[in-house]
Amino acid sequence: MQSLANTPTRYGWAMIVLHWLIGIVFIGQFVLGFVMVRTTSQRTSFELIQLHKSFGFLLLGLIVLRIAWRLGNAPPPLPRSVGTLERRTAPLAHFALYAFQIALPLSGWALVSVSTLEIPTMPFDLFVMPNLPLAESDAAESFWSAAHWYLAYAGIALVALHVAAALRHHFLLRDSVLRRMITPSSGGE
């Protein structure tokens, strides 16, 4: 039987599903953001922006759920083959990934909250998301727009580093670091 929780050697289903879902949404958001600001049709741009905001709120909810799950469900330790430097930097890299995955949607929410256009945000057309209690102004909109842009590019660079490290473990070091995030733990482990 496959375990929902982590074991001492592998991640459980909950962490694996959250990991890959967040990864797909995060990378998809970067692509969607890139496309939405380069489309020439105002209608298409508006619809893509609304979709981008919807997935941003989904991402924020998923990462909060993942952090809560991780706090109550310790990850398996790194394999013995992982060196001292990597053992020290891996937790910092994961913390940075979590921080960017929270900061990025929050900066987007701040951006739409301070916009003088006052366009409501309706995640997946289900409800109106209230704005953050921030003052509307062109200056604030410029600040949050730049912050969101820089966070997006820094976040995608961090994700690329994370992917490169996982592939290094799998193909060069041939250890279990990537496999344990693909294959869930079993109850008998």
Automatic annotation (TrEMBL):
Give the membrane topology.
Answer: Multi-pass membrane protein
UniProt keyword Transmembrane, yes or no = yes
Which chain regions cross the lipid bilayer?
12-37, 90-112, 150-171
UniProt keyword terms in alphabetical order? Cell membrane, Electron transport, Heme, Iron, Membrane, Metal-binding, Transmembrane, Transmembrane helix, Transport
Task: Tell me, in one coarse class, where this protein mainly resides.
Answer: membrane
Q: Which compartments does it reside in? A: Cell membrane
Q: Which Gene3D superfamilies match?
A: Transmembrane di-heme cytochromes, Chain C (1.20.950.20)
- Kindly give the SUPFAM superfamilies that the UniProt entry links to this protein: Transmembrane di-heme cytochromes
The entry's family comment says: Belongs to the cytochrome b561 family.
**Protein name as catalogued:** Cytochrome b
Tell me what organism the protein belongs to: Mesorhizobium humile
